[in-house]
Design a protein that fits this description.
8 strands; 8-stranded mixed sheet; Peroxisomal Thiolase, Chain A, domain 1; about 270 residues; 10 helices
Length: about 270
């Protein structure tokens, strides 16, 4: 039996960004998740946003490029200014490539590159977002292991309600190289982003309420996409994107997402009427 909190928070989804295996962007992902197009598996292809300077493009890894690309896609769709948006960045593991390189250096007598060390910190994507977007609004970076998407969503909607300002949520994960991959088997890169607003606009896709519950999390009906949902922590958000894939939502639906301590997040998705 479901038990949910007595209070919930409602915000409006204004823009979406997506990049993952066989899901090159939100239009492609929307077609698949709505059932209008078949899913065709392909490795995630990540391209650095053009706003990064050439030197920075060479230095940053997959995780930063992924976070920035889906973030800018969501912002562009929302019609809002990236400079004005507060941000929440959520990743379960951070940059595995840099972690691997630092571990190799520590196991030998090699010196650690200052640039690699700078890019290894968990809030590196947030820092690069500030450089590229010139945003000076508050930014939060968090990690909650496999529940990182749910934790990021809860943090973002809370900020929208408390601060009465729009927030960009960016969730992203990428694989570790071996041998760390055997301990943390994230199998491919996937990122998604949502621009959430306290007020409805002409671009609003849906209104959402978020509360705690005890129900089982929702799965996806496509085996390959369900695999990505389970194996890539940021992929937990695909169940919510499926509910948003019809464009402007026409009917109420409910999605249950993984969270923490045997609790789940119930996301009520409502039409913007």
């Amino acid at each position: 039996m479901s038990t949910s909190s007595n209070s919930s928070v409602r915000v409006f989804v204004e823009g979406i960004g997506l990049n993952g295996p066989g899901l090159a962007n939100w239009p492609a992902g929307r077609a698949v998740l709505s059932g209008l197009a078949p899913y065709v598996s392909a490795p995630t292809a990540v391209v650095a946003p053009i706003g990064l300077a050439p030197a920075e493009r060479r230095r940053v890894g997959t995780l930063v490029k992924l976070a920035l690309s889906v973030g800018f896609e969501a912002v562009e769709a929302s019609g809002q200014s990236a400079e004005a948006l507060s941000t929440v960045f959520a990743s379960s593991s951070g940059d595995g490539d840099n972690c691997h390189a630092l571990c190799e250096a520590l196991a030998t007598d090699r010196l650690i590159s200052p640039t690699r060390f700078t890019n290894s910190v968990h809030n590196a994507p947030s820092g690069y977002w500030g450089i590229v977007s010139r945003a000076v609004a508050p930014s939060t970076t968090l990690c909650a292991y496999d529940a990182s998407f749910g934790a990021g969503l809860l943090e973002a909607v809370t900020q929208v309600k408390v601060d009465r300002r729009s927030v960009l949520l960016v969730a992203y994960d990428a694989p570790y190289p071996s041998p760390l991959r055997e301990a943390r088997p994230v199998t491919d890169a996937l990122g998604l982003a949502l621009v959430l607003s306290p007020e409805r606009s002409e671009r609003s896709l849906a209104a959402i309420d978020v509360s705690l519950c005890d129900d089982a999390s929702h799965t996806l009906p496509w085996p390959e996409l369900e695999r990505w949902r389970q194996e890539i922590p940021a992929g937990r958000g695909l169940a919510l994107l499926r509910a948003l894939s019809a464009g402007p939502v026409a009917a109420h639906t409910r999605v249950v997402l993984d969270y923490l301590n045997q609790r789940q997040l119930a996301v009520e998705v409502w039409p913007c009427v």
